[in-house]
Amino acid sequence: MPLHIAARLCELLGFVLEFGPDRKITSASEDELSAGGQIGFDALKQGEAGLYAALDTLVSPNGLRTVRHRSDLGALFEWLRLSPAGGEADPLRTLVREYIFRTYPCSEKDVVLGKTCPTTSRYSIHGAWKSLGI
């Protein structure tokens, strides 16, 4: 991963972990971004496992019942969503997308970070009824 992508990942992940997903990155001070960078770096020392563990802490209780990954992941998700497709952030985007598909109740029509969910990952009662035509 290029250094500038790794640095921004640390900064944004740490910022969301420290200040919550509702906080806009545009409101962050330099000190808050620096603190976020350290928090993100500490979380990512374990590589992919560290990323997934950090993302696990951001999943809201409602996130397991509804598709709300955008609001749970906050500024981190928005950065990945707005990064150019085919760019240097694609490997990271793929990891986060696969995490979302495994964790949130996505259906086959849901598009996350440029890709459609390959299969319905979890069903709610309502979702099961819809898929069965009930």
Give the SSE map.
Blueprint: H1 3-19, H2 30-44, H3 48-58, H4 69-82, H5 90-103, E1 111-112, E2 115-116, H6 125-132
Antiparallel strand pairs: 1-2
Helix pairs in contact: 1-2, 1-4, 4-5
Rg from alpha-carbon coordinates: 16 Å
In terms of structural class, how would the helical and strand content be classed? mainly alpha
**Portion in beta strands:** under 5%
Major sheet, described briefly?
Answer: 2 strands, antiparallel
Distance between the termini: 47 Å
Strand order of the largest sheet: 1-2
Low-confidence stretches: none
Order of helices and strands: HHHHHEEH
CA-based shape: globular
Query: Number of helical runs?
Result: 6
Overall pLDDT confidence: 86
Kindly state the percentage of residues in helix.
55-70%
What's the total count of β strands?
2
Key features?
2 strands, 134 residues, two-stranded antiparallel ribbon, globular, 6 helices, mainly alpha, single chain
What does this molecule look like?
The protein has 134 residues and is mainly α. Helix content is 59%, strand content 3%. It has six helices and two strands; from the N terminus they run H-H-H-H-H-E-E-H. The protein has a two-stranded antiparallel ribbon. Helix 4 runs antiparallel to helix 5 (90-103). The longest helix is centred in the first third of the chain and has 17 residues, at 3-19. It starts with a helix and ends with a helix. The relative contact order is 0.13. The mean pLDDT is 86.
